[in-house]
Every structure is written in structure tokens, then in C-alpha cells.
């Protein structure tokens, strides 16, 4: 019998062992959203930024050349080691790392001009509390940028998506739809000034290899895809090799 672990431990173990794979992942290292983040950062040329749940650091790398100081913050210490090493290689001397949970930020009130998170929030156990913390540390006049993979609005399609995500990665909590994100951000005290969504293609073998998903769970994911109703398969543009596309969203907010 496997010894029970709390969620923070699961996240740390999952991403600590796969940190290097996320640094080189095309899905994470590329995208127009990184260019948009850089554009937001350029509005605060001497400002301070916080990347919450920084993962392998791609958002922090994008904004660091345009800001005064950037803090890359993550629960997994091994991830932060990868970020710190990569930042040194890139000459980003203004980028610093700090370890901790998204729902308990160890920073003073109103101390960051830009607070962002990218492809991380679906792992957060207490998303409303984490958003409240991001609002707390954001300066008046600053920007909060949320980027994440998103769930479909349709309930049936969403059920398949959440199930497949959890089988692939046991640190998964829940993807939110764009409408759910708008509501959550409003409840946190943020005003959304712009948002966008796009389709993110995922190559199946690479997707499961990156997280080192055990073979029995890879087989379970394939079984779910094989049994998916036609409208579900169509929504995800399911391919014969089980590759598919998912939604991603970017929301630009302020207090």
C-alpha cells in the first residue's frame, strides 16, 4: 500500500523529478503568450515582478529583460534549481528564485508591479486563496496576468478532460473554463480588462513522457479516449496516435 502524501508533497515530487523536461518542453518554452507577457512587462521598466508557480521559468525568462527585479516562485525546489541555472546561462542577473506555496506568498502587501502565473494554476489546491494572495501583493496600477490550460464549458467534455489530466498527472487539481476564470478573478477583487483563448496542440507520447506517467495510466488514458463520444473526440481533435488539442487562456487584470 502506498503511503499517503499531502497535495504539496505530490506536487513537489511530480515536478521535482521532471524539472529538466519542462525546461526543454516546446509546449512550455514557446508561444505568443510569452511575447505578450514581455509586452506587459515593458510597461514597468524598473518595476518588480512575481511569477507564481514558475515551473521551469519560461514566464520569468520572458519578462526579466524588461523589468528591474523578477522573483520566480514555486513549490518544487528542484524546479527552482533548474530556473536558477538557466537564468545564469541567459545572463538574467535580475531574476531570483524563492520556494513556497501559491496560497501563502511570503511577500509584503502591494510590492509587485506585475504578478503573473503560467500553466500552473490547475495544480493549486486552494485557487481562490492563491488569487487573493496575488491581489494582496499587487501594487495599485499594476497588472495581474493569468495564463493556463482551460477546461471546456461543456460538462461532458470537461469530465473527460479532467479525468485524462488526473490519470496523466496526480498533482492535477482542476482546469477552469474561461467563464469560470472571469468569475474567480472578479471574486478575488480583480477587473479583467482583456482575455483571449487559443488551441494548444499536445503530442501524446511527449505529453505523457514529460510527466513520466506510469504505463498502466497511459493505457487508461488511451482507453478513455477510445470510449469517448464523437462530440468529445471532435472537440479535442483527437488523432489516431491519441494526440489532441486543448484550450488555453490569457486574462489581463488589474485591481
Task: Outline the fold blueprint.
Layout lengths: L6 H10 L2 H6 L1 H4 L2 H10 L6 E5 L5 H6 L5 E6 L2 H13 L5 E5 L12 E7 L8 H11 E13 L4 H14 L9 H10 L3 E12 L1 H7 L4 H13 L2 H6 L8 E11 L1
Helix pairs in contact: 8-11
Number of helices: 12
Rounded to the nearest angstrom, the radius of gyration is 18 Å
- Quickly name the level 1 CATH class: Alpha Beta
The chain-level mean pLDDT equals: 93
List SSEs in N-to-C order.
Answer: HHHHEHEHEEHEHHEHHHE
Number of domains: 1
The helicity comes to: 40-55%
Find the count of extended strands (DSSP E, 2+ residues): 7
Main β-sheet, spatial strand arrangement: 3-2-1-4-5-7-6
What ranges have pLDDT less than 50 throughout 5 or more consecutive residues? none
**Broad structural category:** alpha/beta
CATH topology: Rossmann fold
CATH second-level architecture: 3-Layer(aba) Sandwich
Amino acid at each position: 500500500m502506498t503511503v499517503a502524501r499531502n497535495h504539496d508533497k505530490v506536487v513537489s515530487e511530480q515536478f521535482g523529478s521532471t524539472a529538466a523536461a519542462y525546461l526543454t518542453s516546446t509546449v512550455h518554452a514557446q508561444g505568443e503568450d510569452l511575447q505578450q507577457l514581455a509586452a506587459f512587462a515593458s510597461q514597468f521598466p524598473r518595476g518588480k515582478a512575481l511569477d507564481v508557480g514558475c515551473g521551469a521559468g519560461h514566464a520569468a525568462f520572458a519578462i526579466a529583460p524588461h523589468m528591474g527585479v523578477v522573483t520566480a516562485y514555486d513549490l518544487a525546489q528542484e524546479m527552482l534549481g533548474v530556473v536558477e541555472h538557466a537564468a545564469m546561462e541567459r545572463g538574467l542577473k535580475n531574476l531570483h528564485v524563492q520556494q513556497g506555496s501559491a496560497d501563502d506568498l511570503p511577500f509584503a502587501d502591494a510590492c509587485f508591479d506585475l504578478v503573473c502565473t503560467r500553466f500552473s494554476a490547475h495544480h493549486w489546491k486552494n485557487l481562490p486563496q492563491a488569487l487573493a494572495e496575488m491581489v494582496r501583493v499587487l501594487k495599485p496600477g499594476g497588472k495581474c496576468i493569468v495564463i493556463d490550460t482551460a477546461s471546456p464549458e461543456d460538462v461532458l467534455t470537461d469530465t473527460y478532460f479532467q479525468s485524462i489530466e488526473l490519470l496523466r498527472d496526480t498533482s492535477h487539481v482542476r482546469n477552469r473554463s474561461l467563464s469560470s476564470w472571469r468569475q474567480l478573478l472578479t471574486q478575488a477583487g480583480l477587473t479583467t480588462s482583456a482575455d483571449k483563448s487559443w488551441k494548444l496542440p499536445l503530442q501524446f507520447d511527449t505529453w505523457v513522457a514529460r510527466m513520466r506517467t506510469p504505463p498502466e495510466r497511459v493505457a487508461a488514458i488511451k482507453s478513455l479516449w477510445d470510449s469517448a463520444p464523437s462530440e468529445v473526440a471532435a472537440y479535442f481533435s483527437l488523432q489516431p496516435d491519441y494526440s489532441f488539442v486543448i484550450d488555453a487562456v490569457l486574462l489581463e487584470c488589474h485591481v
